Amino acid sequence: MTLLEPPQALPASFHNAIKRARNGERLSTAETELLLAATGDSLDALLELASSLRDQGLRDAGRAAVITYSRKVFVPLTTLCRDRCHYCVFVDTPGQLLKKSKPAFMSSEQVLAVVRQGQALGCKEALLTLGDRPEDRWPEARAWLDEHGFASTIDYVGHIARLITAETGMLAHLNPGVMTADEIKKLRSTAPSMGMMLETTSRRLFEEPGQVHYGSPDKDPAVRLAVIADAGRERVPFTTGILVGIGETLHDRAESLIAIRDAHEAHMVTRDDGSRQGHVQEVIVQNFRAKPRTAMQAAPDAALVEYVAAVATARVVMGPNMRIQVPPNLSDTAEFDLLVRAGADDWGGVSPLTADHVNPERPWPHLDDLAARTAELGFALHERLTAHPEFIREGDTWLDPAMREPVAALADPRTGLAQNPAAQQGVRATAPQEPRRARSGNSVRQLAEAAASEPLTLDNTEWQTLLCATGSDLDALTATADDVRRYTVGEAVSLVVNRNLTSSGLRAVASNDPATFTLDDAAAIALDAVQLGATEICVQGLLPAESDPADYLALVRSLRHAAPEVHLHAYRPQDVFDLADRGGLGLDGALAALRDAGVNTVPGTGVKVMSERVRALVAPGDLEIDRWIEGITAAHRAGFQSTSVLFYGHVETAVERVEHLRGLREIQGATRGFNEFVPIPLPGPTGGVSLVTGRAPVDEHRAMVAVSRLMLSGSIPHIQIPWTRVGRDIAAVLLRSGGDDLGGTLLDGRVKPEAGIECGQELPVHDARAMTARLFRPFRQRTTDYREVGR
Fold first, then answer.
1. I need a labelling partner for 421 at 20 to 30 A (CA). Which of 85, 539, 636, 770 fits?
2. Interatomic CA distance for residues 391 and 282, integer angstroms
3. Are strands 269-270 and 276-277 parallel, antiparallel or unpaired?
4. What are the CB-based long-range contacts (under 8 Å, 24+) for 469-477?
5. What is the CB neighbour count within 10 angstroms for residue 790?
6. What is the torsion angle, in degrees rounded to the nearest 10, for the CA atoms of residue 46, residue 49, residue 50 and residue 56?
């Protein structure tokens, strides 16, 4: 694939640089700059060379056609920092922490809660990322460290790293920013690898007012290069890299790559076979992505051609035996082909649990999907540890004695990659966790902390205790749940711009009933919704018994024809069974027909509580529970993702709520089909029947949301707050109880506005953004499946 046309003759200087690189000669800064500027045929030639070098290096390493990744949890130990980078949304000020009820540092308990959940999902790496030396700028950071007995942030990092390995066997990768040589030496015994992005050698970006690194003492290029050199002297497997598109020139970019190469080569050791090995284990080439609420929010993202050229040039400069990493969440999957052609051979750390807290708007790809896309490109995906295999196999040189046994426990002794091949391509490694013996006498706070770490170890009685919490106990429960939300899915509050259409109102001919519509009306509704900014149309409801069941498909086709780009979120299991049964298609046939017609995802509604007792009392017309489970499971296996729900406040018991959540986890473990969970209260001014006599409705909702977050963490990532049922003010409270999503805007539209359920209730984007701002959390407009709009 040529990126720019028309074909062009390769300049002699570029041709000579390519020839010298192919012969294994070291390129100069000027030659590197030539490669970075490649376009068209020149870029094709560069990609061809980069691919061949990568393939050679993988063959030499004994893992031909293998791309690696590390299954990790991201631990944002503190978001305080003394620097002021103009593109960063990771950091907070003490005032912002106070408004968010967020601690200055994660506690040991909070860290272990996240890490243990990650361990249950097969993670082997805990990435410790934090701001640089916050105690040097913020008295609040210094006070916290003093109160907890730590001399410095780096001292606390070492403590947490040791704790993680001692308590879970997982390995820490340390990314605490600038360190002194003594600090690196002390931390070497706590983790098998460390890292710090060089980003750029540009002094202009550091020294010139208004540039991205101005006012950030730890972004001095000389200081950062000294850290890389010190890591080499201490024989620490080290990760570094460049950031593309932050205002640096091509010359800056070339200098940065050469500087990393020189630092790597300056501290090489000789192996027994006479070969030489340096300490830089991987070079990350990361593309800049502009973020709201930063000084660079209006800056353009790194251009694809420049980014791909930078990846390929890094491969050529660093040679075949260096690992070149590209973050998979910062590029569209359609761009992966170019990145692999550019010589990348590592996707870096990818988490099945936690968000990328540095790039919270960019969700990780699921490991199954990443493995499938990697296979399409001709490579196998294999899991590695925090230290790359070359350093693990030479452990006597590169690993502190304290780390050799923990690393050996997780490494394949032959390859140096991670053990457990069955878990390498996204298969959940969760072993069934048996409930522990009841914690009689334990407080709600202790139960909540246990649930935050290992939710499946609580029994029904313990979950009932949490669901029935009141007063200060309830406050402790919701605070714990909100911490789990914060340290897993992150701070963002999301919303999809959508419109509802109740398919029960479809008629063959127009009527005077404003809640009914025809196929022609449906097409006009879809077009109008898209013109108003909707990315989703949600369709559900049984067709009238006298209607042709084929009208389910006809409605989808009408919507799809009018708005080809819109996401169709259509039909509950009950609706699908109606099409399957009356249409004679069978369940699988009905799902296939809906896919072919244009349905993208399905609602997981149509069940109140997974209890036949409850169904018989409050919703006898709903599908039998077993049939609903069959329907939603079949939809997931057919490739449809869905929502999941619980309607509470009817006649159900606390244990029935708990069993419902357990059932959803079981389905999710088998199918991975649920995107979100929505705890929906019974409508009405009283908010339904409370589990605790006299407990205020808002507290009933707080307990339900908090328990949902704790019990579903590590399984269903997003907890959606049904603002139409609880109102905007209470919705804001519930976003502080573990919620992270507001569902949809529910646009009425200008065409047949009464044809959608919940007509008359809208949450415009600007209102949702304002609600989120009052919580001091970022707002994110999402697609139905939680991707970025437009990606």
1. 636
2. 11
3. antiparallel
4. 469/444, 469/703, 470/692, 470/695, 470/699, 473/443, 473/444, 473/445, 474/444, 474/699, 474/702, 474/703, 474/706, 476/444, 476/445, 476/448, 477/444, 477/445, 477/448, 477/702, 477/703, 477/706, 477/707
5. 8
6. 180
Rounded CA separation 650/653 (Å): 9
Q: What is the mean pLDDT of the chain?
A: 94
Using CA atoms, how far residue 613 sits from 5, 410, 610, 619, 677, in Å, is 68, 47, 9, 10, 22
Q: Give the residue among 268, 272, 260, 270 at the shortest CA–CA distance from 325.
A: 260
Mean pLDDT, residues 138-159 taken together? 98
Q: Which residues lie closer than 8 Å to 328 by C-beta, 6 or more apart? A: 336, 347, 348, 350, 364, 365, 370
Cβ-proximal residues to 632 (8 Å cutoff; 6+ apart), any chain: 573, 602, 604, 642, 644, 667, 673
Extract the tokens encoding 657.
Answer: 């709520």
- pLDDT for residue 263 is more than 60: yes
Write out the two tokens for 344: 């990348």
- Do you know the residue count of the chain? 791
Question: What CA–CA distance (Å, rounded) separates 507 from 195?
Answer: 63
SS (H, E, C) 40-93: HHHHHHHHHHHHHHHHHHHHHCCCCCEEEEEEEEEEEEECCCCCCCCCCCCCCC
pLDDT bracket for residue 3 (50, 70, 90): very low
pTM: 0.92
Phi, psi dihedral angles at 606 (to 5 degrees): 95, 5
| Percent of the chain scoring above 70 in pLDDT | 95
Place of tokens 């027994």: 272
Answer for the pair 261, 304: CB distance below 8 angstroms, yes or no. no
Strand, helix or coil for residue 540 = strand
> Is pLDDT at 434 greater than 90 in this prediction?
no
C-alpha dist (Å) from residue 477 to 472, 482, 483:
9, 9, 10
